[in-house]
Amino acid sequence: MNPQYDCSKLTNQELVIKLKILASDERKAQAAFLAHLTEVDSRRVYAELGYSSLFKYCLEELHLSEGSTCKRIQVARTAKEFPVIYSLIEEGKIHLEGVSLLSPLLNGENHEVLLKKACHKTKREVEQLVAGLAPQEDAPDFIRKLPQPSQTTFAGECRSDNTKSPGIIVPKPRPETIKPITEESVVFKFTGSAELRKKLEKARQILRHKHPHGKLEDIINEALESFLEKRDPERRIARKKQHDPLQKGRATSSSRRIPQRIKDQVWVRDRGRCQYTSQDGKQCGEKAWLEFDHIQPWVLGGVSDDTENIRLLCRTHNQWRAKNGGQ
User: Fold this and answer.
1) Looking at the whole model, is its pTM more than 0.90?
2) I want to staple 88 with a disulfide (CB 3.0 to 4.6 A). Which of 13, 93, 135, 286 is the partner?
3) Residue range(s) defining the domain that contains residue 260
4) d(CA 114, CA 103)
5) Residue 180 above 80 pLDDT?
6) What does the alpha-carbon distance between residue 1 and residue 8 come to, in Å, rounded to a whole number?
7) Separation of alpha carbons 153 and 145, rounded Å
8) Which are the contacts of 84, defined by CB distance < 8 A and separation ≥ 6?
């Protein structure tokens, strides 16, 4: 064990004195951390370093947990708007949980009063404070006839008879979840609209001969296969190998529009990931909000019909590149 972690030889008095000093140092470091995080956020330094968001930077570079990252980003942005929060945290008068709970309610007129009320309060006490400021409306009485059970019920439905059940409360939508239960099986859970249900039922009817049991897994898989067959660049390229792709959708070198065939080739080449690379070699690799970027800008003579001049960038790095004159 590292000697600095061996506290066994300290007296009780030395132990508690040292612990108080460390707690004070931790609060000071926490406030300073939030201030630095705010500045990194404002300057979007994370983009230059190869990250598509401050969240990813905190996870991958600072090695924070997801929950810790979300809370710190929220508190840092709130503290930027109301700087008194820094000193309250440093002095131990309020904790991150308290600021996080109050954050949606704070404004220029009430922040001093609310922060003062939250000082030296536990998380539960701050929750009660917030509930008093933004009370939830009582759920209205609601009575409805439950639907007849079908061969396969949708998540959230109940099998029942035709009797009415008084006082049924419609639950709030649950957050979407994707939870593995075995190496080969995953539970999907989300809240959908009535229109989505109609579409699923329609698809189930159309596919009844192919999938007589009407399982949602089969119906959704068919829908995704159909979508990917039309929209997946890799599949389009595979199909075009059997035809001549050069006579359709071609744009001239003077056109800003990037031909679909070029987009498909770039997507496959870049593996559907942002290609921005920082000076120290960190590639972003973001797979969402991707955009096709002209390496040599079109207005400066860059062509659109050559894969060598087109690359994938996430929206963060495409905007960052434009703001900083291109890289």
Assistant:
1) no
2) 93
3) 246-323
4) 10
5) no
6) 12
7) 16
8) 111, 112, 115
